[in-house]
Amino acid sequence: xxxxxxxxxxxxxxxxxxxxxxxxxxxxxxxxxxxxxxxxxxxxxxxxxxxxxxxxxxxxxxxxxxxxxxxxxxxxxxxxxxxxxxxxxxxxxxxxxxxxxxxxxxxxxxxxxxxxxxxxxxxxxxxxxxxxxxxxxxxxxxxxxxxxxxxxxxxxxxxxxxxxxxxxxxxxxxxxxxxxxxxxxxxxxxxxxxxxxxxxxxxxxxxxxxxxxxxxxxxxxxxxxxxxxxxxxxxxxxxxxxxxxxxxxxxxxxxxxxxxxxx
Length: 263
Ligand SMILES: NC(=O)c1ccc[n+]([C@@H]2O[C@H](COP(=O)([O-])OP(=O)(O)OC[C@H]3O[C@@H](n4cnc5c(N)ncnc54)[C@H](OP(=O)(O)O)[C@@H]3O)[C@@H](O)[C@H]2O)c1
Description:
This protein has eight helices and nine strands. The protein is of the alpha/beta class. NADP nicotinamide-adenine-dinucleotide phosphate (NAP) binds near residues 17, 36 and 186.
């Protein structure tokens, strides 16, 4: 057994998660790879063991099922310790609210919301007493948009954003770092899985998964807690946070606002 840092990546069988696995392997991390398609995970594991001589555990689990989530949470709580959790697995179901298949919506929320919450809980619980560790939670640029057909997915990623930002506040002074990653459109199978054509996006709006992961890992080195890889100036995010801060003291008072008087 090595004493290299160990990263657990969910959704490591494809796309962004696969790119994290490859980048982290290159920098000497031992890996725990999580997804449902075990054949793909085994192929990635043997590629990375051969290329980098690292330890790779394959943990096949369906994060849409309680049993799968529980096994991954148990691995996070176990030894050898997980130093970096990348909560990346997720997918989108599209459709206007009136037309959605509500069972599909539930299935998506189980992965994007419930599993991410449980795995974040497991990691915070394991890392806080150690006074170190890193968690990356993958949201989406759609948190800032209200696109018809995207209510469920957009809301699931708003959950990721809200949950993670509060985790960041709670993690202050614990030694645990928490990154909120906000990808825009990334060239992966995600779009096909969601029934969309990636080609409908102008090429200048589409980023490669490797570039996204480079930015995320660089943001960790820079201690930048919110990584929006294509955002030229972080002050735009700061302005968003400032607008929230200006609103928040006004939303809970003992009287209704004057515009609701009379009528
Ligand atoms: N691509 C984009 O434009 C984009 C933009 C913003 C945010 N994101 C977010 O980025 C994350 C990764 O997406 P991607 O673009 O890399 O998509 P992807 O290429 O389709 O990969 C999705 C990964 O999630 C795993 N996954 C899906 N359902 C799962 C389940 N029930 N249990 C376990 N693993 C599951 C898949 O593995 P198996 O199928 O093998 O289980 C796969 O490894 C997602 O959270 C997505 O919402 C993507």
